[in-house]
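--- STAGE predict ---
source: upstream dedup step, 1 unique chain passed
mode: sequence only
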Amino acid sequence: MKIFRTSWYLLKDLLKDILHALPFVPYRKPSKRRKVWNRVRERRFLRRIDAIYLAHRDSVDAIEVSIVMPAYNRAFCIHKPIAGVLNQHHTNWELLIVDDGSTDGLASLIADKYNDGRIRYFPTEHLGVSHARNHGLERARGKYIFYLDTDNAWYPSYLRTMIVFMDYGGLDACYAGARIINDGNETIGYFGERFVWAQCWELNHIDINSFGHRKDVVGKGFRFDESLNRLVDWDFILALTANHRTAYAPFLGVEYYDGEKGSRITFTRYEGERVEELKAQIQNKHREMLNLPNTSARQLRPSWREALRHGEMANKG
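--- STAGE serialize ---
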């Protein structure tokens, strides 16, 4: 029975790729959350990533990445995400903690607790999460940039897996899956959908904590929109991925907190805003990109197999 179940998952995964490659065949509408996680696909993906890493260990380890962490009065919970960064298998990173005008002693806590030259602390005025992230972006030095909010955490293999996938797959951006937990650390669902830009435009299903991109993409003028009060991550991801090669990495890299303790940084100041109106505003802003030709879409939004196949061909060349 176990062999049959595994074979069925493999066949179903293959059929998805075949159908998605055909023109005018709609991809399954994504959901905000999944109830179950495809462990078979994850294992297959990670085996490929591990093989690539072992073959190119020195070059991968030499890649510096930047992590932008905005924080506003988060002294009570910032230890867990920082610990997740410190425990990463990939150690060539810089963590840019951008303090959005905290009044809870966050500055002294960082100075006293973390004596690590890779951690850089930047105090700013209280101007919101978008300004804080942009402040970090402008000072980032790594080849790739990642984002981590103070109520979430990464699993140890996250950075290395994402770096190998982007660097070897010739990607400009990618995102991983996430395990969603509540206050009791119980799993209540998962984030993780294959990337189709039009579906992302319809439903915000990519979390910024599981998203990374090349730094040189930011050099083209991409920033978080400081005029938006909510949904800033969605707006940024839609803008950046519209014309850049992006793919989904089907592994669990992030522990995403969805409980009641404290307020998430993106919601702290703007809980009363009418989200539906803002959603329509963002969709209108990016609507013209829905007409992107199908051939270009296949090049810009490959499956993970296509991305790694691209890397294999480039490596042979």
